[in-house]
Amino acid sequence: DHDKHDHDKHDHEEHGGHGEFIVEYHFDCGNIAKLNQIDTQWFKHFPSTESMSVNMITEKAQVATELSKNNHKVSF
Question: Rounded distance, CA 61 to CA 16, Å?
Fold first, then answer.
């Protein structure tokens, strides 16, 4: 009987504010030798973002780093 069913005894999974997704960008630079830094404005536009993992490959370097509001530049 559904009327006797105790809804408070159910284990309900709590849903937090965590989200994860993958974004991939490809840039074409006419003079890659002069490129030494990329600055992202992501945290300015999405202030609830805590961190971002970055994997980057250029002809000069391979970089794997974590960015945050206080560290939003990739240098190579």
Answer: 37
